[in-house]
Amino acid sequence: MIKNNLLLTALFTAACGSAFAQTESFDLNSQRGEKQDVNMVPGKQLDHHGIVVNPTPHNLNMDMQTWTDLSAGVKLIDKAGKFTNDIDFLKQNAKGTPLTIVFGEKQAKKAGLKKMVSGAYLLTVDKKGINIVGYDERGAFYALQTLRQIVESPAAQGKVPALTCNDYPDLPLRGVVEGFYGEPWSHQVRLSLIDYYGRNKLNEYVYGPKDDPYHSCPNWRLPYPPEQAKNIHELVEACRRNRVDFVWAIHPGQDIKWNEEDYNNLVNKFNLMYDLGVRSFAIHFDDIDGEGTNPSKQVALVNRLTKEFVKAKGDVAPLVVCPTDYSQLWAKPGPDGPLAIYGNELDPEVQVFWTGAVVCSDLTKETLDFVDSRIKRPAYYWWNFPVTDYARHIIMQGPTYGLETDITDKMTSGVLSNPMEHGEASKLALYGVADYNWNVADYNAIDNWECGLVDLTPEAHEAYRTFAIHSCDTETGYRRAESWETNTFRLADFSQKAYNDLYGEFDRVEKTKSTMERDCKNQLLMKELKPWLEQFELLGKRGKSTLKLMKTFRNGNAQNFWNAFVANRMTKEARAAYEKHKLGTMKLQPFYENAMDDMAQEFFKNLTGEVPAFYKGMGTYPTLATTQSKLMFDNDSTTYYHCGQSQSTGDWVGADLGTVRDVREVKILQGRNSVDDVDYFDNVVLEASADGKSWTQLTGELLKTYIIHWKGEPVKARYVRIRKAESEKKSWIAVREFMVNPTTPESLNFKVESANLDAAMFGFDKNPVTSFRNSGKTSFTVVPGTKAYTMLLNVEQNGAVKFNQYDKKGKLLASTDINNSFFNVNLNNKAAKAEIEGNVEVFEVIAK
């Protein structure tokens, strides 16, 4: 399931060619509605006494005083001959400790298994040896995975304690869907993941990468090329070894024709996959529009395939289908809705996917009640976590949570995780998905995460933990807690203790990359994390230097501070690199952004006695209070603030001007573009207020207006906003620019001349963080009474920069070398014009 309309457009354009004409009206972005609440991770870390089993067993009793030494090996007694290749973690020895494995319903009943369900097992270790009884082959295999984890635990060291483990899964379907948009997993990563599924008792892998053209359009009707077919067969065999069902999914809905020819095309493709060893199939009708969305025809197709393919073959599992209405946000709820049609007409053996309240959402009884009552079966929960195809600059490494722990198999048949395109880095989340599915009531999210870090990187788990705890949140999508152990602070709240604590954390952040490069043996993981680890190291350095800069600011030396401030800014290239691979977005990077802004504003106030023209975002969307809103004020129309939340009538986005000002002009650019973007208020009013309570309308209702430009008699206001008037639109809101009283040549009381006059205005806008690049000469007339100038610059080494003074006739009175970024100069009493000459970045020219 995709979460971004621009990405969807690009993908359909690339993958479907001329078929895109059918999809251009499809707007999934308008159907999004993730809440922006950030809930804390539930649970607490436990002491496992050196033995961790994942997923958490229902009944595990160990006698830590009685141990069996397995260093001499085990004697395998495998009556079914199924498990010889599954005990590679133990040495085999005909004279070793007996390891007996049996399975079957009859044996399970005799042994007293707690539940007679697929995957259940009884594992016992006593003086006589090790005994395993599985309800089925899969259950016996799972018992071996439990034994493996105990034997390989730090406390075991080649021994195993006396124990009884009578265990079973709560949910029958426990899996992973490769169903994201973006680069599909490599064959190597897929194989690595399948082994991981088996070790953690996951039993389904749904193969459905959106960017596999032979899974979706345009080539779903065609056979896989030989090399790809060979790889799929290898995946099927790897799944069999790990007792995982390989489910091959097809996504035909965008261009399917409801006729006999395409039915035969579908059956033929299923037969081709059957010949590769596939015995489980899914049909996805998600993220489409047009004729393919017809629920009655979808149901008729699935029912016919069930009768003529699944049951005719005899060894094929019941089908799984993803409906077009896969989310409660836009699902038609009535008795004639698509889900009700599924419930009334779809073969009862067919499983139905469901993503919950919205595309990315928590698993709750409420949403399951909604869907189950309509489809008349427990839904198969497609959980869009830790997927990041809507936030590809993020790599999700936080805990797996958002799953209610009183869910039963009567409510859902299981939870299927849709991971990131970074398969190896997704294992940390899947460790939790496996645990939850197996033992719902005992799921402990924070403890699972702590154990998962050690499981994935035992040699470097402390460094990995530092990385992971600061790489959790999506910023605007499915929000996650991040950096919850770190306390940041603003300039006004500076204390030595707060400084020391935060400096220590930034120091750990800076060292993480080198530590993991040295110690982590998981090279597939390191390959995926590499660009983020590089940015993490820079983030640590940036945080430490910012803390030091705070001390410099507090020491009060203006020149030292400004020089260090300029050096601590992120370059355009550094910022672009960070935006591509972001982390620390909830606390660490905002600390840097806020600290730099706080210092710049206070510095300007101290120099001038004025409140700088530095504006802050505000409004009904929670993310406006974060540094994300700065993108509205960066004077760059290619960047934008994006709310991440469905809009409603009365919502608003505004600017706090810092103090009451005479507002004379407002220019706002809505949307990610001004042509056809869906994310804007399509009925909007511009308003201003001095107190934030009483608002004055500056315009009437503006319909379908991307560009709002108002000029008029000055209005006393501290706050300016755009408010959504009555409208049915539910998409997000994006704002590229929010300009109030933009500095223009006409707004100044002196004349400026420059090769790029518009850019030069940033040197006179009373905002110390905006700047322009002077590459020749910029001159400005001297306002009578001006005695001196203070200039905030960025003077680079070896730059020949001068400050020139001229009289009324243009005669040069003085020329002074500018060799410091903080430059003070007294004026000649005859000076009528001043000039900056040379290649230099100019932040602010302050007349004294």
UniProtKB/TrEMBL annotation:
<feature type="active site" description="Proton donor">
    <location>
        <position position="287"/>
    </location>
</feature>
<dbReference type="InterPro" id="IPR029018">
    <property type="entry name" value="Hex-like_dom2"/>
</dbReference>
<dbReference type="Pfam" id="PF21809">
    <property type="entry name" value="Glyco_hydro_84_hel"/>
</dbReference>
<keyword id="KW-0732">Signal</keyword>
<dbReference type="InterPro" id="IPR051822">
    <property type="entry name" value="Glycosyl_Hydrolase_84"/>
</dbReference>
<dbReference type="Pfam" id="PF00754">
    <property type="entry name" value="F5_F8_type_C"/>
</dbReference>
<dbReference type="Pfam" id="PF02838">
    <property type="entry name" value="Glyco_hydro_20b"/>
</dbReference>
<dbReference type="GO" id="GO:1901135">
    <property type="term" value="P:carbohydrate derivative metabolic process"/>
</dbReference>
<dbReference type="GO" id="GO:0005975">
    <property type="term" value="P:carbohydrate metabolic process"/>
</dbReference>
<dbReference type="InterPro" id="IPR015882">
    <property type="entry name" value="HEX_bac_N"/>
</dbReference>
<feature type="signal peptide">
    <location>
        <begin position="1"/>
        <end position="21"/>
    </location>
</feature>
<comment type="similarity">
    <text>Belongs to the glycosyl hydrolase 84 family.</text>
</comment>
<dbReference type="InterPro" id="IPR017853">
    <property type="entry name" value="GH"/>
</dbReference>
<dbReference type="InterPro" id="IPR000421">
    <property type="entry name" value="FA58C"/>
</dbReference>
<keyword id="KW-0326">Glycosidase</keyword>
<dbReference type="InterPro" id="IPR011496">
    <property type="entry name" value="O-GlcNAcase_cat"/>
</dbReference>
<dbReference type="InterPro" id="IPR008979">
    <property type="entry name" value="Galactose-bd-like_sf"/>
</dbReference>
<keyword id="KW-0378">Hydrolase</keyword>
<feature type="domain" description="GH84">
    <location>
        <begin position="172"/>
        <end position="441"/>
    </location>
</feature>
<protein>
    <submittedName>
        <fullName>F5/8 type C domain protein</fullName>
    </submittedName>
</protein>
<feature type="domain" description="F5/8 type C">
    <location>
        <begin position="634"/>
        <end position="742"/>
    </location>
</feature>
<dbReference type="GO" id="GO:0015929">
    <property type="term" value="F:hexosaminidase activity"/>
</dbReference>
<dbReference type="Pfam" id="PF07555">
    <property type="entry name" value="NAGidase"/>
</dbReference>
<dbReference type="InterPro" id="IPR049478">
    <property type="entry name" value="BT_4395-like_hel"/>
</dbReference>
